[in-house]
Amino acid sequence: MTQQLLMIEDDARLAAMVGEYLRQSGYGFSHAADGASGLAALEASPPDLVILDLMLPDMDGLEVCRRIKGQGSDSARTAVLMLTAKGDPMDRIVGLEIGADDYLPKPFEPRELLARIRAVLRRGAEAGAAAAGGSHKVMRFGSLEIDRDARTVSVSGTLCELTSYQFDLLVALAERAGRVLSRDQIMEAVRGRELEAFDRSIDVHMGRIRSAIEADAKDPKRILTVRGVGYVFAKQQD
Fold first, then answer.
1. Three-class secondary structure of residue 229 per DSSP
2. Is residue 238 in a domain?
3. What is the dihedral of CA 143, 149, 151, 153, to 10 degrees?
4. Domain co-membership, 39 together with 118
5. Residue 107: is the preceding peptide bond cis (ω within 30°)?
6. Vertex 201: Cα angle to 197 and 202 (nearest 5)
7. Per-residue pLDDT tens for 188-210?
8. For the chain, what is the domain count?
9. pLDDT one-digit tens code per residue, 5-17
10. Contact indicator for 78, 49 with CB cutoff of 8 Å
């Protein structure tokens, strides 16, 4: 089945160029020129991934992302790739914190956009395969439970909201509990593929994971920072 992409972008020329390129690459493609019509299109026919410009004429793109990824939303599992202004890290950080799966600064090369789309969709496919697969693999660290097959994380029975990539990062740390890992080692453990090398926001993702699983993200007990080196996942936890 052809994977469907929705681009929410007010630049008609850019959308036409991107649409032609992605269709030639084998994807279904639709376009919405503003946030309201994009949300309506998503509700009518949910795509596999949304390419979301953060500078929209009718509403903040971050608000659009927030609605897509909102808790209890039917579209919460839809992947979101943000298009951000070059050199504006705050939008990128906020977007990742509210659940966006990846980002790409403008202007961008179509090949890089395609690579990022494939990487995000691949992670989603791997998540689905794991959830439908065989043996049940649950890691427990005190009140924290990580179910690798169901792709869920819970603390004291309460589910934690993480993106697919953040889940993979957490698993990579948990599988190596007690070992200090550099950022490069963590990313290599997650991706194992060169296409994932575009992600340069591991600290933002770690902050989001801490917000989800720590009692106090400012005083973490599960994921500890080793200054000048990287991170370590605590073996002993409450």
1. coil
2. no
3. 0
4. yes
5. yes
6. 85
7. 777 654 434 444 578 888 999 99
8. 2
9. 999 999 999 999 9
10. yes
Same domain, 20 and 73: yes
Confidence band, pLDDT 50/70/90 cuts, at residue 101: confident
Tell me the pLDDT tens digit for each residue of 22-37.
Answer: 999 999 999 999 999 9
Number of residues that this document lists for the chain = 238
CATH code for the domain in which residue 207 is found? 1.10.10.10
Three-class SS of residue 142?
coil
Looking at beta carbons, which pairs linking 186-190 to residues 24 or more positions away fall under 8 Å?
Answer: 186/230, 186/231, 190/165
Domain check: are 50 and 79 in the same one?
Answer: yes
- Pick from 129, 161, 185: which residue ends a domain? 129
What range does the domain containing 206 cover? Answer: 134-233
| CATH code: domain of residue 99 | 3.40.50.2300
Q: CA of 17: how far to CAs of 7, 9, 21, 23, 232, in Å?
A: 11, 12, 6, 10, 44
Q: What pLDDT, on a 0 to 100 scale, did the predictor assign at position 98?
A: 78
Contacts 24+ apart (CB under 8 A), 170-174: 170/146, 170/209, 170/213, 171/139, 171/146, 173/223, 173/231, 173/232, 173/233, 174/139, 174/141, 174/146, 174/233
Asked if 144 and 193 sit in the same domain, the reply is yes
pLDDT of res. 195: 39
Residue-wise pLDDT tens digits, 139-195 = 999 899 999 888 899 999 899 988 888 898 999 999 998 889 888 888 777 765 443
Both 12 and 125 in one domain: the answer is yes
